[in-house]
Design brief:
This protein has 11 helices and 11 strands. The chain is of the alpha/beta class. The longest helix is centred in the C-terminal third of the chain and has 25 residues.
Length: 344
């Protein structure tokens, strides 16, 4: 049993959420009972669960006192960070919070915190993992923040324009109409960080550039924050070309999901080659996300896990069939379901 007191009565309703939905979510996740009375919260349950709930609620309250919003995703974040060994403040360092004109963004998992530290330290960062883990979103947020602070002169956002070969000539319209559909996720992230008129101004004066990968050849990108998204769909030649664009006072982020390679059969992903070749090199960070970092609809996590299990089962079946019949076990091995441990 524990009792928490909060000094600012006006923040308690925001902490509890509409109809106490934040408290209900925490109760279900931790197996505790949380009863609000004025500016007090009474917690009961096992000692470990109460301790986790107490630190999570304190972290959320501290966030509110700093003028940052609290929603159900933030509740999920403190639970996730607490489960991974976070501190009493939810494991979030103040210097990891990214502030842009429209949003304040903080890590919602241990791997996201590791990623933001790598982005803060600069150099070359690879971010690998499934959809919805914040790889691109956080990179764009960090880039916009540094641009607004005047630490860099420009932000360059790039993607392979067509998943398998960049055959732009077969698409209708002028060049912008050809490439815009492939770059739309980057535009969406920009508009989440900045007012629309400011995005338009920055793009007009060249402070923000969004371009297909093919347009990077022959350039040197200095005083810039450069992001290559969907990098699993680059060839090794394209990846080497892109990485060697890095100039003075520049940071580069390369994001991708190696489970969604759309290159023609038999062509290795440049992202896979780059992370294998450059692993362990000084100044280069490689951050791995997994299904536990997915921040979209809960079904997305289930979808990612189901596909992962299917692929592992299929691979196990292939290996079973390759084994000589005299040495085969009675049935193909069943892969163990992935746990919640994270890799970074």
């Amino acid at each position: 049993m524990a009792r928490l007191k909060f000094d600012d009565n006006s923040l308690v309703p925001l902490l509890c959420g509409e109809h106490d939905k934040h408290l209900a979510h925490m109760e279900k996740a931790l197996g505790v009972s949380i009863v609000p009375r004025g500016n007090f919260l009474s917690l009961s349950g096992s000692a470990d669960a109460v301790a986790s709930a107490r630190s999570g609620l304190q972290a959320l309250y501290d966030r509110l006192t700093r003028g940052l919003p609290v929603d159900i995703q933030e509740v999920e974040a403190v639970l996730r960070l607490g489960a991974s060994g976070g501190s009493a403040k939810g494991g979030v360092d103040e210097d990891l919070v990214i502030r842009t004109r429209k949003r304040h963004i903080s890590p919602r998992s241990k791997n996201q915190a590791d990623y933001l530290r790598a982005l803060r330290d600069g150099g070359l960062v690879f971010a690998l993992g499934p959809a919805g883990t914040g790889k691109t979103y956080l990179a764009v947020a960090a880039a916009v923040s540094r641009l607004m602070k005047g630490e860099i002169d420009r932000v360059v956002l790039s993607r392979p324009a067509v998943e398998a070969g960049e055959q732009l000539g077969f698409l209708p319209g002028d060049l912008r109409e050809k490439v815009d559909p492939y770059l739309r996720p980057l535009y969406d992230a920009l508009h989440d960080m900045m007012p629309g008129n400011q995005v338009a101004k920055c793009m007009a004066d060249g402070a923000i550039e969004v371009a297909p990968l093919a347009f990077m050849r022959g350039r040197t990108l200095s005083n810039a924050f450069v992001i290559l998204d969907e990098a699993q769909n680059t060839t090794s030649v394209q990846m080497k070309m892109f990485l060697t664009r890095l100039g003075e006072n520049a940071s580069m982020v390369v994001t991708g999901d190696l489970s969604q390679v759309d290159l023609p059969h038999g062509i290795r992903s440049g992202l896979r080659d780059a992370t294998e070749i450059l692993a362990g090199e000084e100044g280069i960070s490689i951050v791995h996300f997994d299904d536990g970092d997915v921040m979209r609809h809960p079904l997305v996590t289930q979808i990612v896990r189901a596909y992962d299990m299917f692929e592992k089962k299929t691979e196990a079946g292939r290996e079973y069939m390759k084994t000589p019949s005299s040495n085969r076990p009675s049935s193909p091995p069943s892969p163990k379901r992935k746990g919640k441990g994270k890799k970074s």
